[in-house]
Structures are given as structure tokens and as C-alpha cells.
């Protein structure tokens, strides 16, 4: 039996003095209330009301059970209220600064369809980590190991002008025209992780590149001008290159992938596990449609 429904009927019948009045208050018909009271009595092992007189009165068992039944109903109401308040509170999501506002609006709309209000902030990797640890945000998109990734994308090199569709080899930075000898390959903050940075530097050493030719950007604006106008290159996904009007080529020296995950506080895990949210979030992060929504390995 539904214990909570039975207790609600029990409390209402006692408070209103009749089955008919209780049914009206609960939005039910009187026979339903009678059946629920009868089921509760069977569960508790005895009658809750004296029914031999015109006026209802509690039996000794009913008197003993009424307080607990009322408490159960109040706790259930409190639980429902807290759940409603939690779902109406905006979920605070921190994303990498390279995400486009137009794409993030789709993330907000998707969360709304799933019953969540979401508030998004864009910030660099370091401030995002601090915000999550200091409880300023509920969700944090961050780089992670391949086995824990929700999204994955192959990294390549992008720049201006169009250099064809062939693979890019790092030693070609040494053969750039004289005017571009200071050109560098810029790495975005989101890719400043050992799994990407270390093999890239080893490949750079094999190609006899200087440290100045492999640069880690501290902010996304740091690489915009050098890549767009001064002959430098950007390590990025093919989707990101298209967004910025750059020409993208895969790496020839090594295979690199960006692996991202969303770290969540317990109350919002339901949102992060939704396939529609994962797919929309992946596209906003610059991942291709084929890899957005990659299942999490736990």
C-alpha cells in the first residue's frame, strides 16, 4: 500500500471530521479515501476510527498513530518543497573562456527543457578551478584523463593563410619565411595539461624548436593577434578553427586529443548525466557532433 497517501487521508479525516470533507480537501472522491483508510488500518493491524456513531472519533490505536502520521505528511511536504527550491535555484556552470556565447545559449535552453535553471560563467582554467573549490560554482568543465572523459576531439594546427590539407609537421616552423621566423605554435590554457603539453614539447625538441616557438597562452586573447595576423599557429580542434576563420590541419608528428569532463556537485548529477545536455555542451566546447556526448567511463 501507499503509506503516505493513507496517512494523508487519515490526518485529513481526523482534522475535518468526516470522510466526505477529507475527500473534498484532498481532491478525491469519498470511496477512494475510505479504501485508503481501510488499507492503512490493515497495514497497522487495527481500526483507526470508531464508526458506530454519527461523529467520528479515534480509537486508542488511532490516537497513538495520529502524531506520527502527521509528522510523516509534514516531512514529505518539506521534502517536496526543498526539491522544488533546489531545482528552481540556478545551477552555476563554469566553462572555458573559448566557448562562444551563441553556443552557450543553447546549453541554457537545453537545461531549461530538462527542468534546470542554469547560470554560466566563462573564465580561464585557473580561476575556474578556484571557483569550484571555493563553492562559487556547481559545475566545472575541465580537462581530464581519457578514461573519465565526456567529450573528446582530435587536436591539430590552425592558422592563416590556407596551407593546404596535408599534415603539419613541427619542424616546418624552422623553415617559415624569414619574416615569420618568430612564429610560434600557441597552446590554449585548456590544453595546458601533461597529456598534451609533455608529448608536444618532446616532439618540439626533436624538431629543434626553441621554447619560444611553443607558447602556452595565459588567456585566449593572447594568441588572437599572432595567429590571425602575424603568422603564428594555434593548437585547436577543427571546430574551433572553423569558428575563428582559420585553416586547420592534423598534426603529423604525433596524435593529440583534448579530453574534457564536467565535474559536478551531488545535487546536479542528474543534469550532467542527461544525453541531450552532454551533446549540447560538447558542441559549445568546440567538439564535433560525432564526439560530443561521449559516454563517461566510470
UniProtKB/TrEMBL annotation:
Gene Ontology MF terms in the entry: DNA binding
Keyword Transport found: no
Alphabetically ordered keywords of this record: DNA-binding, Transcription, Transcription regulation
Domain HTH lysR-type: 1-59
UniProt xrefs under Pfam families: HTH_1
Keyword Electron transport found: no
Family: Belongs to the LysR transcriptional regulatory family.
Protein name: DNA-binding transcriptional LysR family regulator
Amino acid at each position: 500500500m501507499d503509506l503516505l497517501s493513507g496517512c494523508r487521508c487519515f490526518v485529513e479525516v481526523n482534522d475535518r471530521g468526516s470522510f466526505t470533507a477529507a475527500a473534498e480537501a484532498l481532491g478525491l472522491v469519498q470511496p477512494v479515501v475510505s479504501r485508503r483508510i481501510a488499507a492503512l488500518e490493515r497495514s497497522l493491524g487495527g481500526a483507526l476510527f470508531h464508526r458506530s456513531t454519527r461523529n467520528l472519533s479515534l480509537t486508542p490505536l488511532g490516537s497513538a498513530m495520529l502524531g506520527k502520521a502527521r509528522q510523516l505528511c509534514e516531512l514529505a511536504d518539506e521534502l517536496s518543497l526543498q526539491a522544488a527550491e533546489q531545482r528552481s535555484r540556478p545551477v552555476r556552470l563554469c566553462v572555458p573562456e573559448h566557448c562562444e556565447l551563441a553556443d552557450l545559449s543553447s546549453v541554457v535552453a537545453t537545461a531549461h527543457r530538462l527542468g534546470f535553471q542554469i547560470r554560466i560563467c566563462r573564465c580561464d582554467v585557473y580561476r575556474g578551478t578556484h571557483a569550484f573549490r571555493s563553492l562559487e560554482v556547481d559545475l566545472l568543465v575541465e580537462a581530464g584523463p581519457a578514461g573519465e572523459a565526456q567529450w573528446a576531439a582530435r587536436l591539430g594546427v590552425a592558422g592563416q593563410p590556407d596551407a593546404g590539407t596535408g599534415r603539419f609537421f613541427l619542424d616546418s616552423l624552422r623553415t617559415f619565411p624569414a619574416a615569420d621566423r618568430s612564429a610560434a605554435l600557441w597552446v590554449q590554457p585548456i590544453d595546458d595539461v601533461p597529456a598534451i603539453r609533455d608529448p608536444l614539447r618532446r616532439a618540439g625538441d626533436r624538431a629543434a624548436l626553441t621554447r619560444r616557438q611553443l607558447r602556452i597562452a595565459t588567456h585566449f586573447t593572447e594568441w588572437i593577434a599572432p595567429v590571425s595576423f602575424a603568422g603564428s599557429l594555434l593548437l585547436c580542434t577543427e571546430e574551433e578553427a572553423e569558428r575563428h576563420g582559420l585553416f586547420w590541419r592534423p598534426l603529423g608528428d604525433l596524435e593529440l586529443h583534448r579530453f574534457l569532463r564536467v565535474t559536478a556537485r551531488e545535487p546536479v548529477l542528474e543534469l550532467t548525466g542527461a544525453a541531450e545536455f552532454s551533446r549540447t555542451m560538447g558542441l559549445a566546447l568546440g567538439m564535433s557532433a560525432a564526439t560530443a556526448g561521449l559516454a563517461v567511463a566510470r
